[in-house]
Amino acid sequence: MVLDRDGYTMYDLKEKVMKSSLAAQAADGLNVTADDEMTLCTSTTSWMRSAPGARCRQPIEEGAKSVLLGHLGNIAQATGRVLRVDATSGRITGDEAAMKWWQREYAPGWAPTV
Questions:
Q1: Is the dihedral of CA 44, 45, 46, 52 positive or negative?
Q2: SS3 93
Q3: Would you call 99 helix, strand, or coil by DSSP?
């Protein structure tokens, strides 16, 4: 099976296409920089920022919600425990050891700043 942003194609053992569901207009589905038609904002100068007042096709808040469950699942697997999560913030509550997995440790000088 090949799965990317454009859809999927399923093959049998002889590489014959068994089933396929692809977008009407194909893009570079293996593009890891997220600057294809599905994620492109409306700005002509930068794919990361949109023009003033314009919205991205996938707002950051919605994208964060989409990947949170996967991150929590990885933390639960790494710790071997059930996690209690604050429904508002998505943060783990009552488990300091699990919260250590919440963010990575950066080499000196490489930590992002806000």
A1: negative
A2: coil
A3: helix
DSSP 3-state percent helix, strand, coil across the chain (nearest 5): 20, 15, 65
pLDDT digits (tens, 9 = 90+) for 46-98: 444 445 556 566 677 777 888 888 899 999 999 999 999 998 888 999 999 99
Distance from C-alpha of 98 to C-alpha of 15, rounded to nearest angstrom:
43
Return the number of other C-beta atoms located less than 10 Å from residue 114's C-beta.
Answer: 2
pLDDT tens column, 4-31? 767 788 888 888 999 888 776 655 555 5
**What is the C-alpha separation between 41 and 54, in angstroms, rounded?**
8
Q: What is the pTM of this model?
A: 0.46
Q: How many secondary structure helices (H) and strands (E) does the chain include?
A: 2, 3
